[in-house]
Give the backbone structure.
Amino acid sequence: MTPLQRYIAEEIAADHADGLLNRREALRRLGLLGFGVPAAVALLAACGGDDTDRPAATQTTTAPTPSAPPGSSTAVPTTPITFAGTDNRALQGAWAAAEQPRGAVLVVHENKGLTDHIRSIAGRFAGAGYSALAIDLLSEKGGTAAFTDPAAATAELSNTPQDQLIADLRAGLDELGRRVPGKKIGATGFCFGGGLVWLLLASGPSALAAATPFYGPFPDGGDLSRSKAAVLGVYAVKDARVDASRPAAEAALNRTGNPHEIWVAPDADHAFFNDTGQRYAPVAATEAWTKVLGWYGTHLG
């Protein structure tokens, strides 16, 4: 099992422990990842789950409905695009063009694929002056829209080779370079996508001038020495599972000598920026958005 596969499995187990998934659904999703029943049951127990097949919180409550999410009031509509990946593979994405771009941002989705929420973030970046491309890492399987079951999309992402994921992200950077020539490029990813941004930074030299991974797991033994990017790492104080890798990220960043900062959102948990989810924290999300735009304003232009 790769670190990303382990991360996805543990995320399912954590959602069960927090009451966001009932036991039956958690076991089904772990089964899609290749877990047998004994292994899945053991993982649920290790993450604090119980044997009660109670209704999940998502089945009995609705998502928070606060004021408009940060950046949404000036968001730009996105357009579906197809662009070239490695080995002549066609990649899909959502493109949002800033009127007068100060820079460009690659947006990397969570483990459910390219959702409307992630598209909205690309539009928010464009509204703030940064042309953005939200890549669909399920492109080779027909794109996220081809999956009627979000859990199946998650399983497919889990089974996608890490090298292919990184190659697709690099193709996204190349596409941004073509669409916004002469501008610096950043990358923002969330959860699974935050982990991929860390992996991209560790994969060697790239076009990245800055990055803002949100609560993504830092790769085991990650070495950022070949990256020149200025990194703002975003975490949440209640997100103990991902926060456990924060010291390794900080140590790796310190060794680079590149500009970097770690921000831990108070009173917030994993996925606090996702305004469609149960853990959405509007105050923390607004502060995070302000920090990200400030970071890109300094390091992208």
